[in-house]
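Weekly puzzle thread! Below is a chain. First person to post its structure in token form gets bragging rights.
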Amino acid sequence: MSDNKELFAIFGNPVEHSKSPQMHNAGFDNINFNGEYIKHLIEDGNEVKNIFLDKHYKGVNITVPHKEYAYKNADEVRGLAQKIKAVNTYINENGKVIAYNTDAPGFLKAIESFKDVKSVLLLGAGGTAKAISLALQESDIAVTVLNRSESKLDFFKEHDIECYSWDTFKPKEYDLIVNSTSAGLKDEYLPCDKELLENVFKTAKYAFDCVYGKITPFLALAKENNLEIKDGEDMLLYQGVLAFEYFTNTKADENLVEAMRKGLKG
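Winning reply:
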């Protein structure tokens, strides 16, 4: 193997907790790809494209809080990302920065183990919520977005997605409750009022948290209410596998997916 490895990275702030490098490096090992994936802390989201090109990265993943900046700065945006207006993957295609969003299909793949999901209550209104809501809408699954403030709901209104602030919300029955907020990531907060959650949990079957690697207060409460729960590991894995396919121009098989899952669990 030559020393001039293809270089890949995760861009975000913070990034020190990211498990993307161990996941992608395990994938590179699995297919004998001459690549290395590292962490790259970026303070200013408007710098993502310049840094990507200056450092000669072949591909990067972009995480919070830079997904919207990454969308604005790309040369070309492909697929559902055009509607989401947030991207999490850059690849360098002959000097052009091509952007994708693999969160949306990654999420759909992650909830395949939940059977007969016809309606979803989605908590939060950030980049991840945008991706998830449009992925659900495209799959003909009814989705309702609930966010603390009204001000962040314009995007969902534009796409005819039912949405409420905490003040205006009237709960219905939902099969699946999804937390896309960062509540529980570094604290012990619930994404919204406990009473409200217990109310929707009464009739729901499943709860999913985009936070991975821990049972958040949201998932713990869901479990107490007898819901089947899942953290964000599979979503992280599958969005990673999809990005990996773009990075390496290969099609992932079961073997590669399992190698990346092992890497993720580290």
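Puzzle host: Confirmed. Bonus trivia for everyone else. The chain has a mean pLDDT of 96.
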